[in-house]
Design brief:
By secondary structure, this protein is of the alpha+beta class. It contains five helices and six strands. The chain is globular, with a radius of gyration of 14 Å. The mean pLDDT is 95. The protein binds a DNA duplex through loops.
Length: 137
DNA sequence: GCCAACGTTGGC
DNA sequence: GCCAACGTTGGC
């Protein structure tokens, strides 16, 4: 079991939409580092869902329901997508400034490299964010 | 709207 | 293969 964080502008694709759709294709990744992380995802892995630009906070937990496959929007084999389903919202959203100010989260990828849209989360970080989000997994 | 950080492109 | 120029992202 691995943990991840994905980032989306709510204008483009919001947590609410994922909840509504129940299962969505996570597409549009056009960055090799993010893609490599995407391809490392395993079915059942858990994923924090972060809203960039608007909100700038982690709002919920999703899970990988289908491992990486060819992005149907592109030819060739450069780009991949996964399918995600919502698990539950956080009881309390965890904003970026809290992530930044929390000592045990100072090494989080999202904090150190804010542009990476798919990044790994360690188990320690996962548990700490759940604690900050007043949520039990 | 600005700008820092990062990725990508293309000339050499 | 290097690196300058350019484009994009996202926090502020």
């Amino acid at each position: 079991m691995n943990y991840w964080l994905v980032k989306s502008e709510p204008n483009e694709f919001s947590w609410d939409r994922l909840v509504k759709e129940k299962r969505s294709m996570w597409d549009g990744i056009r960055n090799y580092a993010a893609r490599n992380n995407l391809r490392a995802m395993k079915e059942g892995d858990l994923v924090f869902f972060y809203h960039s630009n608007i909100g700038k906070e982690i709002v919920g937990i999703a899970k990988v329901v289908k491992e990486a496959y060819q992005d149907p929007a592109t030819g060739g084999e450069n780009w991949s997508v996964v399918d995600l389903s919502p698990v539950k919202p956080l009881n309390k959203n965890v904003p970026l400034n809290i992530l930044k100010s929390d000592k045990s989260l100072s090494e989080m990828k999202i904090v150190k490299q804010s542009r990476l849209s798919v990044s790994p989360v360690t188990q320690e970080e996962w548990l700490r964010v759940l604690e900050l989000g007043e949520t039990n997994e």
